[in-house]
Amino acid sequence: MTMSRSNIEAAIFDVDGMLLDTREFMFHGYEYILDKHGFPPIDRHFIAEYIGRSQTECYQAFAPGCDPAALIAADDEYRPQILHLITGYDGLHEMLSALKEGGLKLGVFSSRTLSLRPSLDNAGVRDYFDVIIDGDMVKRHKPHPEGLLSALGQLSVEPENAAMLGDAVVDIEAGKAANVALTVGVTHGFGKRDDLERSRPDCLADSLAEIPNLLLRA
Looking at residue 2, what is its pLDDT? Predict the structure, then answer.
């Protein structure tokens, strides 16, 4: 699918499953914390369905009856030890460079917290972004658009001049709730293609290489 949007001034990205391949990082981290605290293992497909939502919501689903705050504290302590499990998707630097050279402002809107910035640093992409919104900076998490609107406010860009890009249904829903000009679903992450299609993004992309053609002026 190829199109251009002459009014796009900013692109806001989800991170996990969108820019960075964090599948093993996310799965292993949750599995380790649940096991350490005596909870039974859960299917990775079930974990994938919750990626993009708040840590509280995730742990309440993964470990019913748990103390989410205790598990989140343990999670925050453990995640920095496994950052090596994260890699950038093919074409990451080329895509971000093309968008910056095309004059777009770039931002991140992620539900991840303490490990977010170090993972962007490790991938060598943090400096591409003009604003980074993490899960500790919002009261209402995806699919609520609070973080997206906060990012756009800091960039001084109106939603009708922005794009929201992510691999999960909650990313598309947040973009639509904010009334952005363009929502883009990427199929290489945690979200299932069928689910993304049902969320009715304006575009679907199978790789990062397709994104500049979707966002930049013809």
Answer: 37
Q: What is this structure's pTM?
A: 0.89
133: left (phi over 0), alpha (psi -120 to 50) or beta: beta
- Taking the C-alpha atoms of residue 115 and residue 158, their distance in angstroms, rounded to an integer, is 29
Nearest one of 32, 30, 26 to 168, comparing CA atoms: 26
Backbone angles phi, psi at 188, to 5 degrees: -95, 5
CA distance 126 to 161: 23
Backbone φ, ψ for residue 87 (5° rounding)? -135, 155
Can you state the percent helix, strand and coil of the chain, rounding each to 5?
A: 50, 15, 35
- What phi-psi label fits residue 89: left (phi over 0), alpha (psi between -120 and 50 degrees) or beta? beta
Give the pLDDT confidence of 17-61 residue by residue, as tens digits.
999 999 999 999 999 999 999 999 999 999 999 998 999 999 999
Complete domains list, the chain, with CATH: 10-21+87-215 (3.40.50.1000), 23-85 (1.10.150)
* Residue 167, both tokens: 């691999």
DSSP strand E in 30-136: where? 87-88, 105-109, 131-133
